[in-house]
Amino acid sequence: MPRPVAAGFPESLPRRLATTTTDPQARRGRGATANPDGRFEATRREAFDDGWGAAEALPARTAVTPERARRIITRNTSPDIPFDRLINPYRGCEHGCIYCFARPNHAYLGLSPGLDFETRLFTKPDAARLLTRELSAPGYAPRTIALGTATDPYQPIEREHRLTRSLLEVLARFRHPVGIVTKSNLVTRDLDILAAMAADGLVKVAVSVTTLDPVLARRMEPRAPHPRKRLEAIRALSAAGIPVMVIVAPVIPALNDHEIEAILAEARACGAGEANHVLLRLPHELDALVSDWFAEHYPGRREHAFALVRQARGGRAYDAAFGRRMVGQGAYAELIVQRMRLAKARLGFARERVTLNAGAFAVPGAQLALF
Questions:
Q1: So what's the pLDDT on residue 19?
Q2: Count of domains forming the chain
Q3: What domain range includes position 74?
């Protein structure tokens, strides 16, 4: 006998909705509408009204905890990603992007991929020391390090902690190539380091522009910089001689997919030389979290959006297979690929990616060992 489906909740949408926070004040200025337990927890909590009333909820504050890491460089073996090593100086991200595919990683810490992901953050204060040690190891072979692949290295707490800048200082000393991924104009704070590295072919920056609509941006990435600020960052980086890629990511069906050509045109006018895109990814808890978010902000588009996601993911919410997880498959996914290809050609984006210089790598002071 088929399971009953709640009224107004189509079969094509997730049945297990994340529990929505009862008082919107508790999530004011945040992206997630819920704080469900992680998938590894033995218990599940459910908010309910017991009739006694509740004290007024205060907005969730950001808590930052130092984490003592043993290593800072993480290795990657995915053929979908053009680098084999990466660094993330922070866990969690205060930008609060509802679509962030890194949200489920918070479950490994016993925390929620929902509000916890954007309010309970972790820093790696020894990042620069660890990087110096790892780059100095005998036999280390340099290849481009990707900085900020899971959480943004220029999220708001970087202003205080400056871990990303400290890492760039180390990379500059070692003349080591690095690719940066961010959606923050805070990256321009480090133009002094980046411009000098770019002169030697050691750095490129990818800036994520999800939408040009400030209302939509505030709803789905509430603490990330305004779209215009990101375009200004592209302009400043390009003017400083730093290669810039614009990433239309994620492309969300029925929400921002109509903006692809406009985003590319704006970014190209600001100096972006490369362009790429990523289709919405919904691993683990993210399926229910994004569904809840749609239900609150764009309920009329939810069914259509999820139908197209599933069409592009082989009938599922997510397909993690290499070669498909970034861009999907099927008619809708292929249409997005073709639109990107045609727009990039028309606007004059480079067909080949900038290759960084790994041959300049040198361990500072290593020549002294010869004497």
A1: 52
A2: 1
A3: 63-280
